[in-house]
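pls ignore typos typing on phone
iron/sulfur cluster + seq
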Amino acid sequence: MKNLFLSRRRFLKTSFAGAAGITIGAKVSANSIKEVKTTGIITRRLGHTDLVLPIVSMGVMRSDMPNLVKAAYDSGIKHFDTAHGYMGGNNEIMLGNVFKDYPRDSFTIATKVHPDDINRQTGELGPGSTKESFLKKFNTSLERLQMDYVDILYHHGVGSRQALMYEPVLDALTTAKKEGKTRYIGLSTHRNEPEVIQAAIDSGVIDVILTTLNFKQQHHLQIKEKIALAAENGIGIVTMKTMAGAFLDREKTKPVNCKAALKWVLQDPNVHTSIPGITSFDMLAENLSVMEDLELTEEEIKDLQEAGLVAGLYCDGCSSCSALCRKHLPVHDIMRSYMYAYGYNDFKKAREVLDESGIGNDPCEDCESCTIVCTKNFNVAERIRDISRITNIPAEFLA
Ligand code: SF4
Ligand code: SF4
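k done
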């Protein structure tokens, strides 16, 4: 594995510049330096939108606790991120029930829709990805949320330029915006991010990008460069997967310092807000403390440096390995599932990702020897064998 954290000096150089907090290696756009600090909470404008958001938002994906959402709202979090597919639709239903009695302009809701007919290996869309099917799913999301409109509608999980530029889906997004069913449109991505972000800029219609960004990505500098360019073009930048897998090992003996990892991401002023997944009141408290203070302590820097030396559970989604697999498996999706299971302890989500990938319970069966060389040194075949077994377990028995 490439060592990103050879020394403190190199760490500082590749991530941020000490007290000034200015990112080196990524251009800081004038547009994004619109930071306001009132009542202790740091807020930033989301690109050219009229949304001014606290730097910490809530990823609701794995939370089914209405009281946690209410507590987040009462504590100052105003932006909540869900998706059509989360918890089989129950995540949107839960949010709808929470927010139905709140003033509509007091919170920001983002949801995401996966088009049909995605090639999981290449990330490209096929003819089954129609405008009608995309909008049908989105209308169902609005019903579940009990809302006439959302603030941001994302094309969920874009993995290639082709997918982003795919006319029927772009048309669906712009139609939803014209009809007033969403205020802004965007995309989410957790693979091939630099290519996808550049495509979003080139499209000329994308308002917001939701991208992975964390200190364990080997290509984080390339992502940060593209983020800077996008922000300069007025696109709002939201980040996810900041916790880099939450743990560094399958046995959960080495936790990632999630607070430090979130600070590291938000020190980039081109990042306007982040949506860490919050599933407990302890996690809420930890994330809230970051809203007011982004300075990394010596201890936190050391934690990130040390975590950078371990392969960990986070797959970069670089896709360099899928083409090497004899069976053309969507390796990055399976590795993401592995991370949900062993990093987040969320076997249900892990199973959801495997089901979407369409792999069986032993996808490597009959393969003589693994031809994959992972850039992070993961033993890919071993991890696939391990995680794919959960497809044998009825979904209702998974937590
Ligand atoms: S062992 Fe599995 S991951 Fe490796 S090449 Fe064979 S099918 Fe692909
Ligand atoms: S398994 Fe390794 S090579 Fe494959 S996408 Fe993940 S990080 Fe890249």
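The longest strand covers residues 182-189. The radius of gyration is 20 Å. more later
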